[in-house]
Amino acid sequence: MTDVTLYVVRHGQTYYNIYNKLQGWSNSPLTEKGILDAQRAGDRLKNVTFKTAYCSDTTRAEQTARTILTANEAHSATDVTVSPLFREQFYGYYEGANMDETWYVAGAPHGLPTFKAIVNQYDIGTAKDFLKAADPFHDAENNEEYWTRWDQALDTIRHDSRLEDGDNVLLVSHGNTLLSLMERYGDGAYDLTERPKNGSLTKLALTPADVQVISYNE
User: Does the keyword Lipid biosynthesis feature in the UniProt annotation (predicted)?
Assistant: First the structure.
């Protein structure tokens, strides 16, 4: 296992982002702005040498990752490892539903009618648990299920035999996942009620036993 720096980029804007719909394992295409988000991230990172690159198996993440690698001028990896382990939270029955309406259904039984209210009173992990309880099929991921998967995702990078200490890794990720990472590893330093920007950069130090936040949502 190695110590590496993760350059975590949120995928470019999608149509579901515009329509305020939950977009976990479901997909919608990048908008024109979303393509520009990816291109701008690529230009920003063009001089960073990435030994490897990872993303979820959603087209929005893969298109963003490949756009960034195409723009790279620092002899980086030319391909991306695509895996379902890196997916966003699964919203189950509420995939593609209006975000505000869904979080009302999840939080209102607890006197908390918005996602922000749930997070302010409890945390993002509790929001996941509330949503699974509200899902009539109970297919949505709760906090334990989500982190079981994401711990496997991070260990996939830790055990990548191509990596050596000090290498840089590109990871294209998702909005709620970035918030979840900040909640677990950010030591309370970040506002978790505001979603990270499409195309934004977060840097993490990934060690054999821990994750440390270097910067967030830049």
Answer: no
